[in-house]
Amino acid sequence: MSLPEPARPALDPELEARRVELADLIYRHTGEDGTCATGVESLFVSRYSESNDFAPSLPQPALCVLAQGRKEVRLADEDFAYDPLNYLVVSVSMPISGRVVEISPERPVLALRLDIDPVEITTLISEAGPIGVPSRPGGRGLYVEPIDQLMLDALLRLTRLLDTPKDIAMLAPLIRREILYRLLRSPQGYRLHEIATENSQTHRVSRAVAWLNGHFAQPLRIDNLAREANLSVSTLHHRFKAMTAMSPLQYQKQLRLNEARRLMLSEGLDASAAGYRVGYESPSQFSREYSRQFGAPPVRDLARLRMQL
């Protein structure tokens, strides 16, 4: 079944033709609303025909592309929007929330996600040698970049493999390598380069982020976290906030509250049990911080969420 495509002006005929083909491929390979794994390793396709509120997640590093529609992503109190003319790169696994907009059953949001293993970036850099990526401070751990014809063409060739499964094993790794190369060579590719470069300050901060992701329920001592990252406390604070838009303590709090919300919604824990599970010793402190984060105490917030399901 082909995707219904309403008439609209094309900003660039060649980009538009590729966008339309990519949208049709995603539409055919999703089948229904939701995110689907594909026969290409680390490639996921998504379809959404209803808008939603900001939903928290902790994604791994990934390239996110829209063939149709628009999506907004929130990191701390900063919003990032992307669409078919701009892709999103998450270079570090961080707590973000996202929602799809400009959507209808007749014109669903159609997206693909290609997960990125930082080790692949490191290997590509070492094997390719100098590839002209400037060295500069890394900044935020996610960014939006205009898509160009070369990048869209590579993504389209990778997605076309879903129609020829016998070609995946041979061709997908080659195309994937090309996509990572083009990400590195893009204007903001230095952000991926810095994270993948061993012993850069950005790489060290990413280690601190990864440690917090796995140990957020434990008490946080900043000096211990600084030792984990092999940075001074002041440098860790500065670089950590530059990457995540949060201090380490704010970051830990957001991880804890997001996980507590998930535990109550998905596993049926009450507020006290969920707060204790994620590291809160005081139920009243948990309730206060939860209300600040989500705009309502746990019981009211969960009732609202369940009505939306």
Concise account of the structure shown:
The chain has 309 residues and is α+β, with helices and mostly antiparallel strands. It is 49% helix and 17% strand.
Percent of residues in beta strands: 15-25%
Please give the CATH class of the largest domain.
Mainly Beta
Largest sheet: 6 strands, antiparallel
**Structural shape:** globular
- What is the terminal separation in angstroms? 28 Å
Number of domains: 2
Query: What is the radius of gyration computed over CA atoms, rounded to a whole number of angstroms?
Result: 21 Å
Low-confidence stretches: 1-10
Average pLDDT confidence is: 89
Pairing-aware structural class of the strands and helices? alpha+beta
Following the backbone from N to C, one meets helices and strands in this order, namely HEEEEEEEEEHEHHHHHHHHHH
| CATH superfamily (homologous) name of the largest domain | Regulatory protein AraC
Q: Tell me the number of strands.
A: 10
Strands ordered across the widest β-sheet: 1-2-9-4-7-10
Enter the CATH topology name of the largest domain: Jelly Rolls
Oligomer: single chain
Description:
- The chain has 309 residues and is an alpha+beta fold.
- It has 2 domains: 13-195, Sandwich (Jelly Rolls), CATH 2.60.120; 199-309, Homeodomain-like (Arc Repressor Mutant, subunit A, Orthogonal Bundle), CATH 1.10.10.
- Helices cover 49% and strands 17% of the residues.
- It has helices at 13-30, 118-128, 149-160, 168-185, 190-196, 201-215, 222-229, 233-244, 248-267, 271-277, 283-294, 298-308; strands at 34-37, 43-48, 55-57, 62-68, 70-75, 78-82, 86-90, 96-101, 109-115, 142-146.
- The strands form 2 sheets. Strands 1-2-9-4-7-10 form a 6-stranded antiparallel beta sheet, covered by helices on one side. It has a 4-stranded antiparallel beta sheet with strand order 3-8-5-6, with no helix packed on it.
- The protein starts with 12 loop residues before the first helix and ends with a helix.
